[in-house]
Amino acid sequence: MKILVSADMEGATGVTWPADVLPGTPQWERCRSLFTSDVNAAALGFYDGGADEVLVNEAHWTMRNLLLEHMDERVQMLTGKHKSLSMVEGIQHGDVDAVAFVGYHTGAGTEGVLAHTYLANSITGVWLNGVRASEGLLNAHVAAEYGVPVVLVTGDDLTCVDAEGYAPGAEKVAVKDHVSRYAAVCRTPARTAADIRAAAARAVPLAGRYTPVAGGPFTVELEFDAEHLAAAATVVPGVAPSGERRVSYTSATMYEGIRTFKAVTTIVSSAVEEQYG
Questions:
Q1: CB 194 within 8 A of CB 187
Q2: Contact predicate 186/38, CB 8 Å
Q3: How far is residue 10's CA from residue 211's CA, in Å, rounded to a whole number?
Q4: Tens digits of residue pLDDT in 126-147
């Protein structure tokens, strides 16, 4: 049995502030160990439950944040850019029996600690077939297309609520409770590691590939905080204006949909001006 862990950082234990997740800052350096503790706890729990392999895919920013030397020796880690499926890279090879979303967060334009969707700012909302979408929802649809269940989600309490919409049967662990976008009531790493490990062990019986779900077509709509960013997004073939500061596109599969989404966010991020956005 092989489990893929998609590891993001904003939803990690103790993380509440941009500097906590911005590579190169003193706070990021400190929070890397907290992030690693959450991910390692998930891996240990999966091994406790009988998993044979755990592959961790780094999914935050530079995708070079976790401390490999502090992970269980059985873990393998996929680190660095660039990847065809970004946050869920590795799911497409037919050998993954389940995926865990560790350190996840809520989507752009919603309540939640460090809430966003792919870009830290600039995007004020994302909708998938009319439903407001977090990274968790988008990635869950990719996983479904490969017949891989989401069995564990960790993050703040509102992330766990969000996960009820796309993975109702998954184990969920809140490592902190939302107060504002930049504040939370946090549990200690000793406590969250124990909670995550126990939940991961309970999640193992949920693993097992199923018949892939072809849920397309998928229409993705994005709203930005400035008109010129919407205009920049239309450089991507198939992306068209859909309203004030909005663009949309339709893909036959979520594989295509998430790759187009990545192209849009990459181009938009390059169009953001330092002072005026």
A1: no
A2: no
A3: 32
A4: 999 999 999 999 999 999 999 9
At 274 the pLDDT is 87
Helix extents (H) in 15-171: 18-21, 26-48, 135-145, 157-166
- How far is residue 108 from each of residues 43, 98, 102, 175, 209, measured CA to CA in Å? 28, 26, 18, 20, 30
**Low-confidence residues in the chain, pLDDT < 50:** none
Residues 223, 227, 229, 231, Cα dihedral to 10°: 100
Distance CA 274, CA 272 (A): 6
At CA 30, angle to CA 24 and CA 33, rounded to 5?
Answer: 110
- pLDDT tens-digit readout, 61-88: 999 999 999 999 999 999 999 999 999 9
Q: Strands 123-128 and 131-132, how do they pair?
A: antiparallel
Residue with tokens 């001006």: 273
Residue 97 to residue 132: CA distance in whole angstroms: 27
